[in-house]
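Support request, please re-run this one:
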Amino acid sequence: MMTDFGEILKIVGDFGRFQKCLVLQISLGSFSIAFHMFGQLFMVMDVPHHCDTSWIHEISPNLSKEQQLNLTIPWNTPGSYEECHMYTQVERDIDSILQYGLNSTEKCRNGWVYPSGEEQTLVTQFDLVCDRKGLHDISMSIYTVGLLLGALVSGSLSDRIGRRPVTLFSMLLMGAFGVGAAFAPDFYVYMALRCLVGVAVSGFTISTVTLGAEWAGVSYRTHTVVISHCSFSIGQMTLAGLAYGVRNWKLLQIAGSVPVLCLFFYIWVLPESARWLMTKGKIEEAKKLLRKAAFVNNQSIPPELFEQLTPVEKDTFGTILDLFRKQHLRNVTLVMLYTWFVNSLVYYGMSLNVGNFGLDIYWMQFVFGAVGILSCLCCSFLLQWFGRKKCQCSFLLLGGVMMLLITSIPQDLPVVVTTLAVVGRFAISASFSTSYVYCAELFPTVLRQTSLGLCSMSARVGSIISPLIGLLDKYHPSISKAIFGSTPVIGGILCFLLPETHGKELQDYMEEGVDGQRSCEKVNGSYEIGYLTVKEDGQSTGHTRVTRL
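Re-run finished. Output below.
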């Protein structure tokens, strides 16, 4: 007698050497994603600047630097010159200028001058100052648009052609366009390349989450997500040190993008999801992969096991609309969409404003990375002890409460603000990791990538809106923090409506309701057959048959 894929995985090894190598491969790719997410923050830090007023040297070439600035640049505050305005250029001799001075002002006409001897940044390369300063925020939004587009395309594409090709293609695009951005001739080309990098990052992230979850056994699915998220946090900590040591933005861009290109050998070693192959009726390919996994895990598969597997004659492809046609999927989808939206909104709201919590940007990024590792490790144990539902609710509520508390703390207490921010970041990071695990378990195999893509799209909307919420601080400094605090509290309450998936086998088809997910435990000597067709006494049984062992 034969059971479903979960039972096959127990025989093959549900988290043996094969799965550990797979998680390692996913983690090495996740390490580089931190750079693409946050690397630009270190390329656009404020640089002292003033208008280029070298025109006065044509009138009097012997003026010192101080004399030139005193004559051509108005004072902003005592001891500092105006950064974005200059005195209007005139056709007068130097004696007249010295006697009467210059009165009318205008915006910088001939560009800007930056401190000499400093490494080139995005700001100095493309003059992202004054009226062009907003291009930095626009470029971050363009990148998140790329993440959204990647989620839109890669989710359904991965359900159609497989997890492996989408992952490999995403890695190629991530490295190629990341390096290409360092050689962009202007900032608009740079933004376009960053958008394409965002598409690739999104494709890699959601494809590898599913790939890892579908190869791991019930008790180890959390590990595949948590370990890759730990790798992302380690990458974030490494980025802080790398950015501190490499101040030239082009070298930093190349250093952060090249590592993923070094993983070209994945084309030979990265496996496809055997579970996905089964749902597509590619039984022989699935058998080949299962034999390989069993060999690597030093396990043996009974020959009669494979003889019982035959393709299932049913539609194995779903669309986004299917997530809303069935009530049990619709309810889960709506709650998860909001959960991912809130996670991203608060996560990036805190990450992109690391300089507003009282510490140096390099140290704060390092601390946030360390907190991310801690949250992943805690998340791994807590999900096993308390389940997905309770953890998702608790993390969201804790993160929201911490942000709400920050609104009541005076800004002259930076240590208290930083402590609350770190705790809030811990909770939101843990919530993000939980949502990846939870989402992979709530939806069936035929729609898993599509649902992850849709949830990822919702998250990207949150990341796009996040910088805009920060603009509300000009009306009151607590408005943005109040929003970042209240939205996750609402999300935590909504998560009580979700079913628990801890200890349940993954669904494969839409007909299997969430509450009907199979437990990994044996109940009354019976197991429910999944998507495999089992030959019993020469007769083929359907995939919904319950077979007594």
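The chain is about 60% helix and 5% strand. The chain has three domains: 5-45+129-497, 50-113, 514-548.
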